[in-house]
């Protein structure tokens, strides 16, 4: 398949990724933002992550692929995702925290994912968009990758992971390093302090892939 680069940073809050030979299959993960002991993730003690599917672009099969990829992320993190229907204009309905969908990116760009974080690096809004019209295998891989960004993960330099910086082969599920990263941003972690929700700052962190 084509080889695509996942390297254009759209925010200055991102950290570098680990690289060989320090990365091993079980440690090949990175967080979208990290500041000291804090790193980007949703609150495991909060309500379900509510999401809509942006239906402006994409087929019925592609929308079904989103539901399947979200279920895979649910199993890897422990989060409950609550589907709130379709968005026909790309705008989330009140109470919706995440938007997932398709668009037509310029050039060879395959996707974009990220979100807004509080001062404590709690993610409270997220998004994941994929290039429309990919093959089913490419679509599955890129959906998992962008949802990984939505959940707080960054790129890695280990080509055996879904969160690898390039797409030169496809995976239909998360790999060992991905799964460890998703565990660390998942529901097995500590709750955020109650004050975090009151300190929401307009800090957008995103990867253009």
Explained architecture:
This protein has a single domain, classed as 3-Layer(aba) Sandwich (Collagenase (Catalytic Domain)), CATH 3.40.390. The chain has a 7-stranded mixed β-sheet, with helices on one face. Strands 1-10 form a two-stranded antiparallel sheet. The two termini are 16 Å apart. The protein has helices spanning 60-77, 136-150, 176-184; strands at residues 4-5, 8-9, 34-35, 38-39, 49-54, 81-87, 98-103, 111-117, 123-131, 166-167, 203-208. It has 209 residues and is an alpha/beta fold. The protein is globular, with a radius of gyration of 16 Å.
The CATH fourth-level homologous superfamily? Collagenase (Catalytic Domain)
CATH 2nd-level architecture: 3-Layer(aba) Sandwich
> How many strands?
11
**Helices and strands: which structural class?**
alpha/beta
Query: Oligomeric state of the chains?
Result: single chain
Report the radius of gyration as a whole number of Å: 16 Å
Task: Name the features.
209 residues, Collagenase (Catalytic Domain), 7-stranded mixed sheet, two-stranded antiparallel sheet, globular
